[in-house]
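Practice problem 4.
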């Protein structure tokens, strides 16, 4: 994937802010801070996307020039799996004013949203995707400019690649990785979900199965974040994951409930720490808990 970074590096100047240097990450070009975005709001090549996970709370004001995506309409099928239809992503990007050479900045109010959209756009081969570090909350906290949501863009004709299966892992691969010394299955849900107390964000009901995939290690995905929602320095991230046996020489399989939070962890491990063999299990607990072959603890 080295070619995917060439254009980004040419246009990106790493910045130091807070208690970290972004250039210390394996691929600093995939992050932008609020100051960088402020300086590039009028750049015609920059397209900004906010993903709203609560359809009842679509913001009336957004970062100027932003288009809003509703994942439950735009990206997720009725059975809560990701829509990997190439035509669907082409339609979404085209109506959002995004071209194949656009610099796409993604963010949301929830920390994991940016990583999930980053992963999904990489699945379909978009080269220049970057996450706004700290997302909407940091932008608003700093009293940076907002504009009324128009959600109208000049349509384009986007041409996506076929979905790249190398960035995701399927049920059988996960099952074959249980208790394997060269693999780590990483559960990034809340502790209550991991223990089986919760099913997503509520107690299990109507036959729902709580628990976790056998042999999986638990690190909550938000553990990678500072209190302001920005990503922790590389030294803290490396120590946190390595202390749980999550090392660069192993195959790492993050999962959550429906693949969104685990995509954020995939992003951290692959792009910030530079782990070479990380694949997101987007089927996650939603699939695993319903497959008759699976066993939960």
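Answer key:
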């Amino acid at each position: 994937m080295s070619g995917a970074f060439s254009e980004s590096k040419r246009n990106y100047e790493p910045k130091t802010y807070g208690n970290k240097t972004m250039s210390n990450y394996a691929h600093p070009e995939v992050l932008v801070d609020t100051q960088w975005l402020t300086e590039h709001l009028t750049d015609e090549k920059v397209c900004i996307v906010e993903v709203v996970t609560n359809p009842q709370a679509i913001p009336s004001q957004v970062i100027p020039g932003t288009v809003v995506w509703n994942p439950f309409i735009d990206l997720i099928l009725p059975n809560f799996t990701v829509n990997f239809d190439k035509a669907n992503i082409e339609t979404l990007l085209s109506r959002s004013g995004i071209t194949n050479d656009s610099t796409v900045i993604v963010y949301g109010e929830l920390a994991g949203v940016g990583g999930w959209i980053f992963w999904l756009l990489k699945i379909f081969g978009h080269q220049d995707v970057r996450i706004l570090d700290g997302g909407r909350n940091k932008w608003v906290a700093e009293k940076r400019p907002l504009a009324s949501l128009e959600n109208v863009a000049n349509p384009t004709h986007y041409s996506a690649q076929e979905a790249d299966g190398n960035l995701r892992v399927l049920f059988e691969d996960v099952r074959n990785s249980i208790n394997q010394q060269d693999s780590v299955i990483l559960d990034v849900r809340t502790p209550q979900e991991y223990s089986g107390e919760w099913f997503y964000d509520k107690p299990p009901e109507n036959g729902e199965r709580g628990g976790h995939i056998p042999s999986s290690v638990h690190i909550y995905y938000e553990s990678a974040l500072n209190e302001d929602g920005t990503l922790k320095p590389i030294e803290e991230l490396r120590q946190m994951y390595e202390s749980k046996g999550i090392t660069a020489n192993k195959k790492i399989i993050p999962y959550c409930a429906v693949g969104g939070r685990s995509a954020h962890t995939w992003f951290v491990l692959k792009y910030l720490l530079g782990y070479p063999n990380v694949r997101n299990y987007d089927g996650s607990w939603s699939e695993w808990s319903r497959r008759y072959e699976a066993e939960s603890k």
